[in-house]
Write a structure and sequence with these properties.
The structure is a single chain. The protein is of the alpha+beta class. It is 34% helix and 14% strand. It has helices spanning 7-16, 70-73, 76-84, 105-114, 169-172, 205-220, 226-241, 249-261, 266-280, and strands spanning 21-25, 29-30, 87-90, 97-102, 119-122, 127-132, 138-142, 145-148, 154-155, 165-166. Strands 4, 5, 6, 7, 8 and 10 form a 6-stranded mixed β-sheet that branches. Strands 2-1-3-9 form a 4-stranded antiparallel β-sheet. It starts with 6 loop residues before the first helix and ends with a helix.
Length: 282
């Protein structure tokens, strides 16, 4: 990858035109977080919805560090990054743009037949098609095609050629995720009822329903560590209801449905349920 000549000069020029910029190191990746921001200890700037520098003076949190403020761009805290930078990155969404990143010749051929013409910038292997308007970013929307807009960064490769076109519905549709296919839990996952014909006290409708509903809510409201949250919710349900056989396939399916709606696969749900049972000796 060739180094961008005078990256700081390029960055200031872009910032002056309203494009939020950040330095990129070798590999076209942002610089790592500072000590105070390591592992998102500061709260995780990428969770914010707008571009701009982190509260710390460093170049932290990837796309969210992008800024148009020349005082920040030329600050001592950014100076070392610019000295080591190999190219300039920018936040398309912060500039009101969406970049369709076409990675190879096949992707370019597809775009020429499926998308309206717009400003085009050559890349190492393909092209960036730039549209006016913002949308959610998403990688691999089809073979060789990524979308970079909000909460994303991309490399600046020049002004390109052609006239900016308004973001078409055809591009927006690429980022629409299909709803997860929810399959019911297998019957073998249910815990056998205890013998003796004694009615389980947990079958009290209010008590059992409250436990399942709380587990569903815990999973649904999770914003991070989804795998861990799902396992913890399964473990909590099984620790209360797993030894008496009151759990039915319907209850387990409700928990699996909540987990799959958060992006978990059926296999992971099954593994998490089995691991929770093993932990409790069920």
């Amino acid at each position: 990858m060739s180094k961008t000549p005078y990256p700081l000069h390029t960055a200031l020029s872009l910032a002056a035109s309203g494009i939020p910029v950040l330095p990129l190191r070798r590999g076209k990746v942002p610089f790592g977080n500072c000590t105070a921001c390591a592992d998102n200890a500061c709260g995780g700037r990428p969770n914010m919805k707008t571009p701009g520098p982190c509260r710390c003076p460093g170049v932290c949190h990837a796309w969210a560090a992008a800024t148009t403020d020349p005082a920040v761009i030329t600050s001592p805290a950014w100076a070392e990054a610019w000295h080591r930078a190999v190219c300039v990155g920018y936040h398309p969404g912060g500039a009101g743009l969406t970049v369709v990143d076409l990675d190879d010749a096949d992707a370019i051929t597809w775009a020429r037949t499926a998308l309206p013409a717009t400003r085009t910038v050559p890349t190492t292997r393909g092209e960036h098609w730039i549209y006016r308007g913002v949308m959610p970013s998403r990688n691999t929307v089809r073979p060789g095609v990524d979308i970079k807009s909000t909460m994303a960064y991309t490399r600046y490769l020049g002004p390109g050629t052609g006239t900016l076109t308004a973001l078409p519905d055809a591009v927006r549709a690429l980022a629409v995720k299909e709803p997860p296919t929810v399959r019911p839990a297998s019957r073998f996952l249910a815990v056998p009822a205890r013998s003796g014909g004694v009615m389980c006290p947990h079958r009290t409708p209010v008590f059992l329903e409250r436990g399942i509903a709380m587990a569903e809510q815990r999973i649904t409201q999770a914003r991070s560590a989804i795998h861990t949250t799902v396992y913890g919710a399964f473990l909590a349900v099984l620790s209360t209801h797993g030894r008496c056989g009151c759990l039915t396939d319907d209850h387990i399916t409700r928990l699996f449905t909540a987990a799959q709606a958060k992006g978990e696969t059926l296999r992971h749900c099954t593994d998490a349920w089995t691991n929770a049972r093993t932990t409790l000796g069920l």
